[in-house]
């Protein structure tokens, strides 16, 4: 159960970072709004090491390029505006523009297949 939750938590972080760059306190605020548990706040650093690039100038985090391929346009945590923004972001990435149309296929996968690294 914990492994599944951590995978979902990681997925939430990835989908947030796909929309832009964030400072760690901003990410924590969004995740708390989404209902992360107090004990999980400490694991954010480990997740960010794996899925994000740190900008040393302002200590902000952005999603690693290869993870844009794993995004789901219709992820439940996105608002309609978020979905439109993601579509715009993906269209600006030449290698991913072909995958943007096939990202809806990811929803047909089971949770363990969707969230697998």
From TrEMBL:
A GO CC term assigned to this protein in UniProt: transcription elongation factor complex
GO biological process terms on file: positive regulation of transcription elongation by RNA polymerase II; snRNA transcription by RNA polymerase II; transcription elongation by RNA polymerase II
GO molecular function, one term: cis-regulatory region sequence-specific DNA binding
Official protein name in the record: ELL2 factor
Chain positions covered by the region annotation Disordered: 95-117
Gene that encodes it: Ell2_1
One Pfam family hit: ELL
UniProt domain RNA polymerase II elongation factor ELL N-terminal: residue ranges: 3-93
């Amino acid at each position: 159960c914990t492994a599944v939750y951590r995978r979902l938590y990681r997925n939430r972080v990835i989908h947030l970072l796909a929309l832009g760059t964030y400072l760690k306190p901003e990410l924590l605020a969004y995740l708390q709004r989404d209902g992360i548990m107090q004990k999980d706040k400490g694991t954010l650093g480990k997740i960010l090491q794996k899925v994000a690039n740190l900008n040393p100038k302002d200590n902000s985090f952005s999603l690693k390029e290869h993870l844009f391929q794993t995004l789901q346009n219709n992820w439940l945590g996105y608002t309609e505006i978020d979905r439109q923004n993601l579509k715009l972001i993906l269209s600006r990435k030449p290698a991913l523009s072909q995958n943007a149309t096939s990202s809806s296929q990811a929803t047909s996968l089971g949770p363990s297949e969707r969230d697998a690294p």
